Amino acid sequence: MYMYDDLVKRRNDPVRVGLIGAGKFGSMFLSQVPTSEGLCVHGIADLDPERAKAACRNVGWSEELIAQTKFYPSTQAMIEAGGVEVLVEATGNPIAGIAHAKMAIASKTHIVMVNVEADVLAGGILAQEAREAGIVYSMAYGDQPALTIEMVEWARSNGFKVVAAGKGTKYLPEYHYSTPDTIWDHYGLTPEQAAEAGMNSQMFNSFLDGTKSALEMAAISNGTGLKAPEDGLSFPPAGMDDLAHVLRPKSVGGQLDDSGMVEVVTSIERDSRPVYRDLRWGVYVVIEAPNDYAAACFKQYGMNTDSTGRFSAMYKPFHLIGLELNTSILSAALLGKPTGSTQSFNADVVATAKRDLRAGEMLDGEGGFTVYGKLMPATRSLAIGGLPIGLAHRVKLVNDIAKDQQVRWEDVEIDMSSQAVQVRKQMEDAAR
Question: Are 156 and 268 found together in one domain?
Fold first, then answer.
């Protein structure tokens, strides 16, 4: 994208960033700021400004740099103070994320949505409104959805058919039922060790129970038009050398229902043996040669192909999360382009019971004790009236729900007047 020369030119007039939420992702971004030319953090909005200052010290900021930065108790206060070119929404709270995106749109400020939870909940509307307002609404480079979409764009731009795209993780079927009380067993930590390290059990559990994988695949589907599996992710075991063999359609010997799908591969076999050369921390795209000549080139240049030689895979074995976020910020400010953005309501993530639930119970959302998120096509979610995982927090059940069954709108008491619910319903109505 050749941004660095433009960035250097702004050494004396740096791109001014407003960070919302100084948690783990925000801290990773903040750690890069002192060594980033042409970029500065104009302000940080956090419910606890002193905690945000502590985060800056923890990543190595000087007291002089902290003194030059403005800290706000709310996003609205930071926007009203003016001067921010690009907002970074890094709270991870879908309700707050929608509110902050709306504020960005109203103030015509570019926004980078680290908050994939909010993006999947209502990105179809938010991205459209941002485009109409003439601002950039972008996924966050460094997170796996934006990195995967970049690979899909590369493949399509060069004339390849995209067969599959997604990421790697660590998965076994029983992980869907993991709770914040059992999470640390899977990470080899005691609850005391996790608490000492400041690790949030519910947040980490959302990665293990499959919810985060479902959300990230929905974001990729909504940003590329790739299809979501009808009955959720299957998490096939596959290493870097086996992607093209496993992630091809069943009609030619693979495990996909069709070509052009999102999927997540696991780093462990179903019997817990490690997958050879696993892709746990990376992203991939599987491509199909459009002709015999291209297939021959795959072989000539050492590509990892399936047995037919027509399917191959490109992958990135690692992602650096917030350490790579500058790419999105600078793409918005200097190029006026997103690093991935929702294009349509193509896929959804629906709250699904971790155990038999009873009327009167309160749902506790992503990574909690009651529900996990299941990926499905948006058409199916709409047909069953599925409750999105982003709204399955602090709402009361009015009906019993059996284990592994989806929760529906009609199964909960929910405030229909809330901004998040109204924006979500607006997106659903537009898709019907």
Answer: yes
Are 158 and 255 contained in the same domain? yes
| Same domain? 369 vs 309 | no
Model confidence pLDDT, tens digit, residues 400-419: 999 999 999 999 999 999 99
Residue 2, pLDDT > 80, answer no
Q: Are residues 78 and 110 in the same domain?
A: yes
In this predicted structure, the answer to whether residue 197 has a pLDDT above a threshold of 90 is no
CA distances from 339 to 80, 138, 430 (A): 26, 6, 25
What's the pTM?
Answer: 0.97
| Cα distances (angstroms) measured from residue 136 to each of 54, 87, 159, 335, 429 | 30, 10, 27, 10, 24
pLDDT score of 4: 87
Half-sphere exposure of 416 toward its Cβ, with a 13 Å CA cutoff? 6
Q: Which two tokens stand for residue 279?
A: 């892709």
Instruction: Band the pLDDT of 1: cuts 50, 70, 90.
Output: low
CATH code of residue 59:
3.40.50.720
The closest alpha carbon to 324, from 32, 14, 11, belongs to 32
Tokens of 284: 């991939």
Same domain assignment for residues 128 and 153: no
Count of positions (residues) in the chain: 432
Are 110 and 121 in the same domain? yes
In this structure, the answer to whether residues 311 and 163 fall within a common structural domain is yes
The crossing angle, in degrees rounded to 10, of helices 419-431 and 94-107 is: 80
Provide the angle, in degrees to the nearest 10, between the axes of the packed helices 24-32 and 49-58: 50
Q: Where are the alpha helices (DSSP H) in 209-291?
A: 211-224, 243-246
Q: Which domain holds residue 90?
A: 4-142+322-335
- For residue 272, being part of any structural domain is answered with yes
Cα separation, 210 vs 207, in Å, equals: 6
